[in-house]
Amino acid sequence: MDIRTLPEAERQIYNRIRDRYSLLFDSLRVGEHTVRLLKVADIEEMLDGKDPFADVSEFPFWIKLWEAAMVLAYAVTKLPDPKGKSMLELGAGLGAPGLAAAACGFDVTLSDYEDIIMDFQRVSAAASKLDRVQFQHLDWLAPPELPAFDYLIAAEVLFREEFFAPLLNVFDQYLKPGGRILLAHDARRKCLPLFLEEAKKDFHITISSQKLKKFGEPITIIFNQLRRKGD
Ligand SMILES: C[S@@+](CC[C@H](N)C(=O)[O-])C[C@H]1O[C@@H](n2cnc3c(N)ncnc32)[C@H](O)[C@@H]1O
């Protein structure tokens, strides 16, 4: 990726981030489109084989592109009729699923509560020539007023029980009648079944899984679709 091809504003953002992190662009093929994803270059080195979920207070979660996000990115490309449909990605981090959806034609808003990661998203969107993506600072604990969306999507957001009630509230606030929520999580996340049990009171939930290999080790990603009861 030639940084000189970025628009001036995003080039400045890129240079600001580069002062703090060594960077690289990953490519994600979405149909005819290639999404360019700005990432921190030495993340696996930083992790050094440790599971970051072992100590959630220590790790800047937004920094890594989680395998679940890749599965979700693929899933959104299979959704029908993107034209005119709005989609909000919650806890988007690097924003691969949302950017993939934007490449397919959805009207996408990427959100997170870490402003630094939204700078990564802005550069990635510009590098991918996706100029209609919106960016929204959104803390699940203090969700702002926003119009409702046809789709809410999220990967690896259920890692603390204290997020259950705020996230259910966020789902309720931002999902249009008849809308769908797509979630993807590593099967090792202990919180996920507990959350789904809670969510079952208000949503019909489907579940499927996909097996991947990470450094030769098998991992399973759980994929859920939620639809409001009564819709
Ligand atoms: C494990 S990361 C997953 C990132 C991305 N979805 C992925 O799968 O690659 C969790 C994300 O949730 C965001 N997050 C954590 N607490 C949040 C909150 N209270 N409100 C909004 N986002 C939050 C973090 O900044 C981070 O980007």
Structure notes:
One of its GO terms (molecular function) is methyltransferase activity. Keywords: Methyltransferase, Transferase. This is Methyltransferase domain-containing protein. InterPro entries: Methyltransf_16, SAM-dependent_MTases_sf. With 231 residues, the chain is an alpha/beta fold. The protein has one domain: Rossmann fold. Helices cover 29% and strands 32% of the residues. The protein contains 7 helices and 9 strands; from the N terminus they run αββααβαβαββαβαββ. The strands form 2 sheets. The protein has a 7-stranded mixed β-sheet, with helices on both faces. A two-stranded antiparallel sheet has the order 1-2. The longest helix has 13 residues, at 115-127. It is globular, with a radius of gyration of 17 Å. It starts with 7 loop residues before the first helix and ends with a strand. S-adenosylmethionine (SAM) is lined by residues 61-62, 65-66, 68-69, 91-94, 112-114, 117, 138-141, 155-157.
Per-chain topology:
Elements (H helix, E strand, L loop, with lengths): L7 H11 L4 E8 L2 E8 L2 H5 L19 H10 L9 E4 L6 H9 L2 E6 L2 H13 L6 E4 L11 E7 L8 H11 E12 L4 H9 L3 E12 L2 E12 L3
Parallel strand pairs: 3-4, 3-6, 4-5, 6-7
Antiparallel strand pairs: 1-2, 7-9, 8-9
Bound molecules: S-adenosylmethionine.
InterPro entries: Methyltransf_16, SAM-dependent_MTases_sf
GO molecular function, one term: methyltransferase activity
Organism: Candidatus Desulfatifera sulfidica
CATH class: Alpha Beta
Structural class by helix and strand composition: alpha/beta
Question: How are strands sequenced across the largest beta sheet?
Answer: 5-4-3-6-7-9-8
Write down the overall mean pLDDT: 92
What is the CATH topology classification name? Rossmann fold
Largest sheet: 7 strands, mixed
Q: Helical segment tally? A: 7
Small-molecule binders here are: S-adenosylmethionine
Number of strands: 9
Name the shape in a single word: globular
Which regions contain 5 or more consecutive residues with pLDDT less than 50?
none
The proportion of residues forming helix, as a percent range, comes to 25-40%
What string gives the helices and strands in order?
HEEHHEHEHEEHEHEE
The CATH superfamily name is: Vaccinia Virus protein VP39
Approximate strand percentage: 25-35%
InterPro entries: Methyltransf_16, SAM-dependent_MTases_sf
Pfam families: Methyltransf_16 (PF10294)
GO molecular function: methyltransferase activity
Organism: Candidatus Desulfatifera sulfidica
